[in-house]
Amino acid sequence: MTVIKTIEELKSALKDINITSAEFSRQYYLNEVDKDASSSNLEDHYGRFKKLTASSPERIAAYINYFNRTYKKDGTYTQADRNAAWDFFVELDTRIITKALDKESGVDKAALNSLHELFYLHRSIAKKHGPNCKNYYILVSHYFEKHIRPFTSKWHKILKDDNSAIFREELATLQSEMTKLKSQLHKIIE
Is 164 left (phi over 0), alpha (psi -120 to 50) or beta? Predict the structure, then answer.
């Protein structure tokens, strides 16, 4: 992307990434001005946004700054990618998926349910951060399809009791892979 200096360039950049001016204006107002704004306030703000011209550079600068922070790619990852990566990093860091399950404690079924909850969390995080977290979505979805889904599909069917040595052995292998994902998410966040 080129350096954006005018409102026309901003509107063109939004068009290039399939974000309407109305949606951009709405997101700006909710994220920068009032997260609880009424639909009337959002409509009024969009009306003001449409009227922006070169004669109001300070106001244009605020929108360009917001665009750069939220939508513009910095090489590979957007701000939405970074925000989504942080949200999921916290989930991975605080769950059994990246922590050792002690042989003497822990419940296998609870660990399996925790893994299953990650599907919901991943979908929720992707929806929350929208289409601009596409790189995050692709990365995490790959790990789900290659590692988590096969593991949960298998063990939801056959896990009968806790302290299954085979379950814990395979969980340790999965934890190793998910620790790699956690490291990749950390790189996105930085």
Answer: beta
